[in-house]
Design brief:
40% helix, binds pyridoxal-5'-phosphate, Aspartate Aminotransferase, domain 2, seven-stranded mixed beta sheet, alpha/beta, 13% strand, 12 strands, 14 helices, three-stranded antiparallel beta sheet, 400 residues, 2 domains, Aspartate Aminotransferase, domain 1
């Protein structure tokens, strides 16, 4: 039976066209793009093309606003650390309680070791940002706001363009971790006040270990990696040229498939959600019902362990995730679901199904076929479910 991969927010399959585009850059075009001889020049031209392809995907005004990095984590760190350095008089950061560890761990470290004040803006039950708390946290002490475009676990989308305007009024820089949004949502940075944006290749069918940081023209930037003058001295180190070429090709393909992501893929996601919620009592969608990534379904099944479901699904050849890939392995519900104040009895049983253009109707059918049985089996073993007894079972009002 064909395996069913529904963990695309953790990572995506590299597109075969991306692989084809990259291959010559391991063999024939192996030159260093900084070299002035012919070997270097052809590679330099390919890097330039990739920069333009990425510029087009995110609607950047100038191609040199794109700085290639090793991925989302590096881009997030680079943006925040740079802001603190270029604005030494400002010692506060505003972020959200549901960011990826690439932002939250760095903030915790800065708080502990450098005495930086970090405002972690809370979210509501659907993962939506508390705008009042956000406004209250902004002041002339804030160097940078770092708020994600879309959450990796629930898919909830934040109104980053509006948040960036407010940050600008306070004189703070605005950075967004758009690792989960780029390639899934149309983005036009030209028309926003966003100063910096992080993206990662492996979330959009390019390889792991390549990503980019967008730095708006005119925004002061100080690199933490010291060395050569690559990337206009904003990211030292010989460029990962096959990765860059692959990311460029992936950006071009993402533009081509953007409609598919927002129509066919979304329809698959919606059919899965609806089917599961109709078949399984005491289950609900955790993300924002309206402002949500088209590919992400995070469903909490009450009174069971997500890990148990993952193992049984895995036996059926179905791959998905409980919480984010980085937090699975620990039995604590993820920091995202805790911040949303989802009761422990539900947060423990939250499963994330994340689609991509590689998925089809059969994948949805397969999950709908096996999931009700798995949940029933695990609930039979659950002392919590026994406690629920004959109490009326609840179906999600949105879909029931
Ligand atoms: N930010 C978000 C929202 C993510 O989902 C991830 C990856 O899971 C990252 C950052 C880290 O990106 P990378 O794996 O490229 O370092």
């Amino acid at each position: 039976m064909r395996p069913v991969y529904l963990d695309n927010n953790a990572t995506t399959r590299v597109d075969p066209d991306v692989v084809q585009a990259m291959l010559p850059f391991f063999t024939d075009h192996f030159g260093n793009p900084s070299s002035i001889h012919a070997f270097g020049a052809s590679v330099g031209a390919a890097v330039k093309t990739a920069r333009r392809q990425l510029q087009a995907l995110i609607g950047a005004e100038f191609d040199h606003e794109v700085v290639f990095t090793s991925g989302g984590t590096e881009s997030d760190n680079a943006a925040i650390l740079s802001a603190l350095e270029v604005m030494p008089d400002r010692t506060e950061i505003v972020t959200s309680a549901v960011e990826h560890p690439a932002v939250l761990s760095l903030c915790a470290d800065l708080e502990k070791r450098r005495g930086i004040t970090v405002h972690r803006i809370p979210v509501d039950r659907h993962g939506r940002l508390d705008l009042e708390a956000y406004r209250a946290a902004l002041s002339s002490r804030v160097a940078i706001v770092s708020i994600m475009w879309a959450n990796n676990e629930t898919g909830t989308i934040f109104p980053v363009a509006e948040l960036a305007e407010l940050a600008k009024e306070a004189g703070a820089l605005f950075h967004t971790d758009a690792v989960q949004a780029v390639g899934k949502l149309p983005i036009d940075l030209r028309s926003t006040a966003i100063d910096m944006l992080s993206l990662s290749g492996h979330k959009l069918h390019a390889p792991k270990g390549i990503g980019a940081l967008y730095v708006k023209r005119g925004v002061r930037f100080r690199s933490q990696i010291k060395g050569g003058h690559q990337e206009r001295a904003r990211r030292a180190g010989t460029e990962n040229t096959p990765g860059i070429v692959g990311l460029g090709k992936a950006a071009e393909l993402a533009m081509k498939f953007m409609d598919d992501e927002n129509t066919r893929v979304k329809t698959l996601r919606d059919r899965l959600e609806k089917g599961l919620l109709q078949a399984i009592p005491n289950a609900f969608v955790t993300g924002d019902p309206r402002e949500r990534l088209p590919n992400t379904a995070n469903i909490a099944f009450e009174y069971i362990e997500g890990e148990g479901m993952l193992l049984l699904l895995n036996r059926e050849g179905i791959a998905c995730s409980s919480g984010s890939a980085c937090t699975s392995g620990s039995l604590e519900p993820s920091h995202v679901l805790r911040a949303m104040d989802i009761p422990y009895t539900a947060a423990h049983g939250a499963i994330r199904f994340s689609f991509s253009r590689d998925n089809c109707e059969d994948d949805v059918d397969r999950v709908l076929e096996v999931m009700p049985g798995i949940v029933e089996k695990l609930r039979e073993l659950s002392p919590f479910w026994a406690g629920v007894g004959e109490a009326p079972k609840t179906f999600n009002p949105v879909y029931a």
